[in-house]
Amino acid sequence: MRVLVTGAAGFIGSTTAELLMSQGHEVVALDNLVSGRENNVPQGADFVQGDCGDVVLIRSLGTFDACVHFAALIEPGESMKFPERYFSNNVASTFRMIETLVETGIERFVFSSSCAVYGDQVEMPIDEDRAPRPHSPYGQSKLMVEQGLQWMVELGRLRAASLRYFNAAGGTLAHPERHDPEIHLIPIALDVAVGRRSHLDIFGSDYATPDGTCIRDYIHVSDLAEAHALAITALRQHPGLTVNLGTGVGSSNRQVVEAVKDVTGRDFDVRFVGRRPGDPAAAVAANGRARDLLGWRAQRSDLRSIVDDAWAAFQAMEP
Ligand SMILES: NC(=O)c1ccc[n+]([C@@H]2O[C@H](COP(=O)([O-])OP(=O)(O)OC[C@H]3O[C@@H](n4cnc5c(N)ncnc54)[C@H](O)[C@@H]3O)[C@@H](O)[C@H]2O)c1
């Protein structure tokens, strides 16, 4: 198949592009490098530097059997300051691209959605039927794309899967996790462990969780990549899919810190500071639908494997 992978210079997009190529697909890797790095694009992919909202560019790329759409701005905090950027980049540009792809005959579309669509939920685990309540323009932008896709599916214009990732983590030697600025706990903790940062702030230690810190469902990027390949296949049978990608097991911030200290063999300064507005106490996925509809099962997403792989990838990375 010929597959357009947007955001392919980013963390999850590059890992998935690599997997799709290893399965024999021809990959066109599109990224405007607003936050991605060109050297992250897998060798052998046809790299195009450009914006997914550039319809002239998208039309010039020819026809595709499928698109996997990772390209997005990804920081909920930034989206609270500049919501217009998120609606413009994550929603408007996405639908400009979809319109062009549909004109050129694409049939299958896989979208990077997020557990941010759920907002702050009390009952865990969260299944896909839970009413979404995004707490940030970032989460709202993901929900808006999902809703547009649902209409397109219902009206027979496109086959589409919205994959709601929980916390992507881990990494591979070729594609370590690195965002700029980094907002994710494990890579920040690794930075602290090697002395690139002085200390680690943990936001909130008075949540109603067993150890008082927030709980998240970490999912290895290699498992995420696998789910995208399965979703492309599943769309042959199911015209529309909305699926959580998580393990169903939550890890608290304290547990993550302990795992990082253990794996790296280094102790470091951890400071418990106030809660961050908008952070839910817990976010853990119910993943039965991914198992039943995609035939997906997480293979490397226990916390120890995630931190082991993140540390190996971190050490192999150029500074
Ligand atoms: N990392 C997570 O934990 C997580 C969780 C849930 C959902 N997601 C979603 O997964 C996707 C990938 O996340 P990631 O962690 O790999 O982020 P990332 O920042 O590493 O990758 C995103 C890539 O998209 C590119 N990009 C942004 N806007 C673009 C545009 N208009 N045109 C072309 N390229 C553009 C960036 O340059 C970057 O390379 C995003 O859609 C994100 O919202 C990520």
Describe this structure in words.
The protein has a domain at 2-168 and 218-246: NAD(P)-binding Rossmann-like Domain (Rossmann fold), CATH 3.40.50.720. A 7-stranded parallel beta sheet has the order 3-2-1-4-5-6-11, with helices on both faces. Strands 12-9-14 form a 3-stranded mixed beta sheet. The longest helix has 21 residues, at 83-103. The model has no long low-confidence stretch (mean pLDDT 97). The chain contains 10 helices and 14 strands. Helix content is 37%, strand content 18%. The protein has 319 residues and is of the alpha/beta class. The structure holds nicotinamide-adenine-dinucleotide (NAD). The site of nicotinamide-adenine-dinucleotide has 30 residues, from helix 1, strand 2, helix 4, strand 5 and strand 7.
Number of strands: 14
What is the N-to-C succession of helices and strands? EHEEHEHHEHEEHEEEHEEHEEHH
CATH class of the domain at 2-168 and 218-246: Alpha Beta
Please give the share of residues in helix. Answer: 25-40%
Oligomer: single chain
Tally of contiguous helical segments: 10
CATH superfamily of the domain at 2-168 and 218-246: NAD(P)-binding Rossmann-like Domain
Q: Reading side by side through the largest sheet, how are the strands ordered?
A: 3-2-1-4-5-6-11
